[in-house]
Design brief:
With about 425 residues, chain A is an alpha+beta fold. Chain A has 14 helices and 9 strands. The chains are: A alpha+beta (about 425), B alpha+beta (about 240).
Chain lengths: ~425, ~240
């Protein structure tokens, strides 16, 4: 093997280090994802220093949590519990690039030049993926995680370093270096693609094969004694009356409920359900089952949602739910300082509901909603989803949503 | 070792890194899941607290004695059991309570924030606007309470029989108003009525400070007993 020139070696070293960093960041992300395969809640690593653990702040989803729990963090979610994390193929790609980078250290002449050219080409794989994922994070999720930014940065540095390696190899060749026997470009490409496939495919296969059998949990978390709405407490969330009936128990100011709603809509599985909502505000101003206001202002906002359904010139319940989800942080913060603030905010936003919110009728209807929970002995917890009366396990409302919900729908279809 | 073999070894080593790391993590999660299923505590679990089950309110004042009385009264009034009986006679109320009128009233003392006194005109069972307003306000504020008590009385003027019938009409008047205003399908399972006439557990003036529909200066014993005492009871049976 012929030795590389000094500038080429430095660029190559930078390339390998960048890919190792990418591998470390992708590894941390995959680790965080795989931790959740025990169906429990875990803190995440969310730092530019790979491996540094960060707890969620005040129950709020930080960027890393939003990204991890989003439907974009993995693929094949309906057939694998949680799906295959996209950071796992990223690990494979970076490991492949590390291999090709180290391999290039020992090559010389034409072999080195072709190797450098293809290294440059392959280095665009993580960069391309980073651009796609970064765009999704910014435009769809409105946030970004530090670990992901680490991957994006490593990908960019790797491409730049690979470009410099290739350029320096070309200069060396132009300076009249002796050509040495080397495989053709087609062979380089085919071998490289085969290697890349192996680097990505083998870990993915191992991941899937090592997974526990989650199908045994589907539909095992209890069911409602009945799904009737004798008290008229339920709100229709869609018009899919022909679809599978589902009851969603939620609190309009609960971040987990908002996240669940968004995941459900993003999964597309909401189209297979006829969703009706039972409001269950975790706020002790109306809910005697909680100690203190977990989500201050949730009672008032729940009343506004019920009012919106009944007031003729009102905005409609869904519009108030959407507004409540969008304004959760502001509503909770305002209610902490002044319990009357949410009612003012509702009046300012939806004037037509002013007379209804706080009235005896709506107070009683909201109370009936809470009493529906008592009558059905459901957990004091939001969100909850009952598909045709069968409960979606709470452990399956985030990463396992698509898999478990699809399983519930399939089970119902075969009954 | 030639360069091709070296490259193969290097490639396998590099590919093994993500494979074994990911495999190990998944395997670890599977082990934890099995432990959780087996009931073992998993230290890394972030929030493993028991989740409460939704239930009706059960306040601290719901002592054993109160529950016992409550159960007896509710059974006599038809709220528990077959539901064929509706409302209680004064004698029955005395029998089930097996206590003095003063002790009976004392049971309700912790309910000052949950109760109100709907005051009627002399020899009348009609609810006026202020009566209805107070009744609506109190009934709408059910929260986690399971039972709404209507304890109607009359002042001692007139015969015992007349006053017994009058207090029954007052209790019925409250029930009719609730039925027409709230259209609550659970009403018959929630509202317990007693009519005591003038015979038992007359209200003392201590109750004048409670929420009342009568004027501030109308709180002599005869005024406050021309009434229906209404209260949500936050006790589970």
């Amino acid at each position: 093997m012929a030795a590389a020139t000094m500038p080429g070696r430095i660029h190559l070293a930078i390339f390998v280090l960048a890919c190792l960093a990418g591998l470390a960041f992708a590894g941390v992300s995959t680790f965080d994802f795989a931790q959740h395969l025990d169906r429990q809640v875990h803190d995440l690593h969310c730092s530019f220093i790979p491996g540094q653990r960060t707890a969620a702040v005040d129950g709020e989803a930080v960027g890393c949590q939003v990204t991890l729990m989003s439907p974009y963090s993995s693929v094949l979610r309906t057939s694998i519990w949680g799906g295959l994390p996209i950071s796992l193929p990223a690990m494979g790609v970076f490991a492949f690039l590390v291999f090709r980078g180290i391999d290039l250290f020992g090559r010389g002449g034409l072999s080195r030049r072709r190797g450098a050219g293809w290294l440059f080409v392959f280095s665009f794989v993580p960069l391309g993926a980073s651009i796609v994922m970064g765009t999704i994070a910014l435009l769809e999720l409105g946030t970004a995680c530090k670990v992901c930014i680490g991957i994006y940065g490593a990908s960019l540095v790797a491409v730049l370093a690979a470009g410099l390696i290739f350029a320096s190899c070309r200069r060396t060749a132009d300076d009249g270096a002796t050509p040495s026997p080397a495989p053709g470009n087609g062979t380089w490409a085919l071998v490289g693609l085969a290697q890349l496939t192996g680097f990505v495919g083998v870990p993915a296969l191992g991941y899937v094969m090592m997974m526990p059998d989650y199908s045994r949990y589907v539909g095992t978390c209890g069911k409602l004694a009945d799904t009737d709405d004798a008290g008229g407490v339920m709100l229709a969330l869609d018009d899919n009356v022909a679809a599978t009936p589902a009851i969603e128990v939620f609190d309009p100011l609960c971040p987990a409920c908002r996240a669940f709603d968004r995941r459900l809509v993003a999964s597309g599985l909401d189209a297979e359900l006829h969703r009706r909502a039972v409001l269950f505000p975790l706020d002790d101003s109306c809910n005697w089952m909680v100690e203190g206001a977990v989500h201050p202002g949730a009672c008032t906002v729940s009343e506004a949602i019920l009012c919106a359904e009944t007031v003729a010139s009102g905005p409609g319940a869904q519009a108030v739910i959407d507004w409540a989800f969008e304004s959760q942080e502001a509503l909770r913060a305002a209610a902490k300082d002044d319990p009357e603030a949410p009612a003012r905010m509702v009046r300012e936003r939806f004037g037509a509901l002013a007379a209804c919110v706080g009235s005896a009728e709506v107070t009683q209807r909201l109370n009936k909603s809470l009493r529906w929970a008592v009558a059905h002995s459901i957990p004091v917890l939001t969100p909850q989803l009952y598909v045709d009366g069968v409960k979606l396990c709470p452990e399956d409302t985030d990463l396992g949503l698509e898999y478990s919900l699809t399983g519930l729908l399939r089970k119902r279809g075969t009954q | 070792m030639n360069s091709v073999a070296l490259r193969v070894v290097l490639g396998v080593a590099c590919a093994a890194v993500p494979t074994f790391m990911a495999g190990g993590w998944v395997s670890g999660a599977g082990t934890r899941l099995a432990k959780i299923e087996a009931g073992d505590v998993v230290e890394d679990e972030a929030d493993g607290g028991e989740v409460a089950i939704a239930s009706a309110a059960d306040e601290g004042y719901c002592s054993g004695d109160l529950r016992k009385i409550l159960r007896r009264v509710l059974q006599s009034c038809g709220l528990l059991g077959s539901g064929e009986v509706r409302g209680c006679q004064p004698v029955q109320a005395k029998n089930v309570a097996t206590m003095t009128g003063q002790d009976f009233n004392a049971l309700f003392l912790p309910l000052s924030q949950r109760a109100g006194i709907i005051q009627f005109e002399r020899d009348s069972a009609e609810l006026d606007a202020s009566d209805s307003a107070l009744l609506d306000k109190l009934f709408a504020d059910q929260r986690g309470a399971s039972y709404f008590f209507v304890v109607a009385r009359s002042s001692p003027e007139g015969s015992v029989e007349h006053n017994r019938a009058l207090s029954q009409r007052r209790a019925d008047s409250v029930m009719t108003h609730l039925r027409s205003t709230f259209r609550d399908p659970d009403l018959d399972r929630e509202v317990g009525m007693l009519w005591l006439g003038e015979e038992y557990a007359q209200l003392e003036q201590d109750f004048c400070g409670w929420s009342r529909s009568g004027a501030a200066d109308k709180c002599k014993p005869k005024d406050i007993n021309r009434s229906a005492f209404v209260a949500w009871i936050d006790c589970r049976l």
